[in-house]
Structures are given as structure tokens and as C-alpha cells.
Design a protein that fits this description.
The protein has 425 residues and is of the alpha/beta class. The chain has helices at residues 2-15, 31-34, 36-47, 71-90, 134-153, 159-164, 167-170, 173-187, 256-264, 267-270, 284-297, 309-320, 329-332, 346-349, 362-371, 375-378, 381-393, 409-421; strands at 63-64, 96-100, 108-111, 116-120, 123-127, 157-158, 196-197, 203-206, 209-212, 215-218, 227-228, 236-240, 249-253, 273-277, 301-304, 338-341, 358-359, 395-396. Helix 4 (71-90) packs antiparallel against helix 5 (134-153) and helix 5 (134-153) crosses helix 8 (173-187).
């Protein structure tokens, strides 16, 4: 009876126009105190910026990097490679191309001073005369033709469209995607420079504005769904935070579900920030966008990821670059992201119920142990400590585990406390 009366009173209040505001929309009384540690971190980052050095500045002569190139430059490179290939054929050597070998493990080098993965240059040959490489050599030649055509016309294509340009030859999109990466390495340019993009995946919301070609984008007016990050990132310019309370930090979120909660609660109004998610493993556009926002606004980045080894791996890809994309780490990696949560030590600290925790699988254990051997993890003792805590507890948890303590526990309790305590590593 009491519950029914409460429901009727709530309905009557709504009918009278007494719409209740969400707590996150209310100016928090202590938000200045809560943001204190973030402001101290921002000051430290501004006073001690990471020097923009290259591997060659540190004495490395065998590490390979690609650069942004104009369509005209890419076209000229393709024509040069084609002319050299014709010369090889006329000399009796057959059709073949030289390029840097991509891959993981032995071909990837972690440079501690730059906190970044790089590709170690090892030349490989793609030869038509080799029966095992006939198909790939043919696909590479065809893709060069398609990329040159786009450069000449000044148009772009998605990876999917490129695959359907000659579906019988490529057979699977993974084939054309992989060859495209090889062309990027062979030409020494970023994949974006090849005029090819992936479908839009990442999303941004909060106190940020930017120009998308001729459109002015204000991400405070994008609702709970946010604004899709443009797949062709060169459309983005004039990144700014021209608000009465400009953004003071970037909250990088692993999962879309957590992003939706933060956006719906208007977390960025109470604690002025920009919220970005790559919806799991981040695409290239999201990683490039994050780097550009950091460079433009010079504010800290705090990461909110699942409490498992895979979440930490995704975070490290944002920071150091992936091993598969080591040749483009200089354009994709954003150094010095702070791991805010969810950390394994948080599960007990915030009394996450046992039924909201998941047991580690043998695969989880093996993956976490492999991460402990990675130099970019070993370079962070507190990350190592957290991984060991997870292995000791034999438990993992998703960000959504906090829902067991209330739908808005994440935005009203967990994150404000984390910010107030400066609890990041």
C-alpha cells in the first residue's frame, strides 16, 4: 500500500510539472574539491611535457615509421614502385616488390624512453615467381591500381568497398585488409593516406567542439548516443572546449554500455570532461582522434576499462600502439594515459558482490601471465601489482558490475570518489 501511494504521489508530481532532475545534472557541492587532484595532474603534465623525439634521436637506426602523405605523394610513390617493378621484369627477375616485414614478437621493439612500440625493419620480398606468393602478389598489384585511381580522383573508399571492387580476386575481406597494410608499409605512409577508411565505430560526447569539414560539432548537444568519430580523421580540425566550464580531463571508456550511462547522466556537466569510447578494441580513427584531442587541449586522460587482462591490453594499445600496427605507432599512440579503473584492487575496496565477479578461465590466466612478460607492462610496477592481484584472486569483473550497487553508482559514487582521491596509476 505504501509503495502504491508513493507511485501515485510521484505521478501527481510529474503531472503538476515537477520534473525531477537527474542527480548528475545538479551542480555538485564539492565538485571543486573532487577535481583538485585532476588539476594537479594537469599542471604536472603541462610543466613536464613528453619530449617529441624519434627513435633516430635515441640512436635507433633500424626502426621503421610511416608518415602522413598527400594523395599526390602516394600517387608518385605508386608510379615509382610500378616503374621499378617493370625494370625488374625486363631484367629477367620477374615481378616482385620489396617491403618491411610486418608482424609481432621479434619484429616489434618497445622503446622505453618513448613508451611506444616500433617496427624493426626486416626486408621481405613479395615475388610472383614464388608459387606460394602468386595470389598475394596479384592482389597487391590490383590494390595499387585501385589506390592510385582514388588518389587521382581525390575520393575515398571504405575497406568494404575496396574488397567488393574485385571480390573474386580477394575472396575474403581479411585478404584485402592485410594487403592494404602491406602497401602502407611499402609506401612508408599511414593507412589514412591511402584514401581508405573503416566504418565509423568510436563515439565522443561532452565538453568538446570541433569542425567536421564545414560543419561545427558541439558534443554537449548530441544526446546520450554521442557523436560518431569520423572515420576519415583529416576532416576534423579546430578542436576546442569553448565553454564556461571547459573540459578538465578526458575519460576514455572501454565499453559502450558504460559510455551510455555516463552520457545519459550527463556526467560531463557535473565534472567537466570529454568522454570517448572505441566500443571495445579501438579502431584507428578513435585512436587518432584521442591523440589529436590530447595534443589540442593538453588535459589528462583517465582510462575506465574492465577489470581483466583484455581490458588492460586494450588500454595499452591506446598508449603504446599495437604490435600489429607498430609501424604507425607515432600517429596512433597516446602516451601517459592514467588507469583509473576498474582495477582488480577495486573489487574488494568497493565491496563488489561475489555473484558479480567472474572466475578467470585458463585462457584469462595465460593471457594475464603473458602480459606480465611484456616490457611496456613491466615498465609500470603498479600495473604489474594489479595483474598479480587479479591472478591471486582468480577473479575478473566488468564495469557493469557496479550496477549491483545501483544504476548510478558508477556516476554518483565510484568515479567521483576516484577523482577526489586521485586514485589512478
Amino acid at each position: 500500500v505504501k509503495e502504491w501511494r508513493a507511485v501515485k504521489e510521484s505521478m501527481a508530481g510529474a503531472a503538476a510539472g515537477g520534473k525531477k532532475k537527474r542527480p548528475a545534472d545538479e551542480p555538485a557541492k564539492d565538485w571543486e574539491k573532487t577535481l583538485g587532484p585532476v588539476r594537479k595532474l594537469a599542471t604536472v603534465l603541462r610543466e613536464d611535457p613528453i619530449e617529441k623525439k624519434t627513435p633516430s634521436d635515441l640512436g635507433f637506426s633500424n626502426l621503421f615509421e610511416v608518415t602522413d602523405q598527400t594523395p599526390q605523394q602516394v600517387q608518385a610513390t605508386i608510379e615509382k614502385v610500378a616503374a621499378e617493378a617493370i625494370d625488374e621484369v625486363l631484367e629477367g627477375n620477374g615481378l616482385r616488390y620489396a617491403l618491411a616485414q610486418r608482424g609481432t614478437g621479434g619484429t616489434t621493439v618497445y622503446v622505453k624512453e618513448l613508451d611506444r612500440n616500433y617496427l624493426e625493419y626486416k626486408q621481405m620480398m613479395r615475388e610472383f615467381s614464388d608459387a606460394s606468393q602468386v595470389k598475394r602478389t596479384t592482389m597487391m598489384t590490383r590494390l595499387m591500381q585501385l589506390v592510385r585511381e582514388m588518389c587521382v580522383k581525390g575520393i575515398h573508399s571504405t575497406k568494404r568497398d575496396l574488397f567488393y571492387a574485385d571480390v573474386k580476386l580477394f575472396e575474403k575481406q581479411t585478404n584485402s585488409d592485410n594487403i592494404l597494410e602491406e602497401l602502407s608499409v611499402m609506401f612508408g605512409c599511414t593507412r589514412q593516406s591511402l584514401m581508405v577508411t573503416a566504418s565509423e565505430k568510436g563515439v565522443v560526447v561532452g565538453r568538446i567542439q570541433f569542425d567536421d569539414d564545414d560543419d561545427v560539432i558541439d558534443c554537449t548537444k548530441m544526446g546520450r548516443s554521442g557523436k560518431n568519430i569520423p572515420s576519415y580523421i583529416d576532416r576534423v580540425s579546430n578542436i576546442r572546449s569553448d565553454f564556461e566550464r571547459p573540459a578538465e580531463f578526458i575519460l576514455l571508456v572501454e565499453k559502450d554500455a558504460a559510455f551510455q550511462r555516463l552520457a545519459e547522466d550527463r556526467f560531463y556537466n557535473t565534472y567537466p570532461c570529454i568522454i570517448i569510447t572505441g566500443k571495445g578494441e579501438a579502431d584507428l580513427a578513435t585512436r587518432m582522434f584521442l591523440r589529436r584531442v590530447k595534443e589540442a587541449l593538453q588535459i589528462p586522460i583517465l582510462g575506465l576499462f574492465d577489470s581483466d587482462a583484455h581490458g588492460l591490453k586494450i588500454l595499452s594499445v591506446y598508449m603504446q600502439g599495437s604490435e600489429a600496427q607498430a609501424h604507425d605507432a607515432a600517429n596512433l599512440a597516446t602516451p601517459d594515459i592514467k588507469w583509473l579503473g576498474v582495477r582488480p584492487s577495486d573489487l574488494d575496496k568497493y565491496n563488489i558482490p561475489a555473484d558479480c565477479r567472474l572466475d578467470l578461465t585458463p585462457h584469462d590466466v595465460a593471457f594475464a601471465e603473458s602480459l606480465l612478460q611484456k616490457p611496456y607492462i613491466m615498465n609500470r610496477p603498479k600495473w604489474v601489482e594489479e595483474l598479480k592481484t587479479m591472478l591471486f584472486q582468480k577473479e575478473k569483473a566488468e564495469i557493469q558490475a557496479f550496477t549491483s550497487k545501483g544504476f548510478q553508482f558508477l556516476t554518483e559514487t565510484y568515479l567521483p570518489r576516484k577523482l577526489r582521491e586521485g586514485d589512478w596509476v
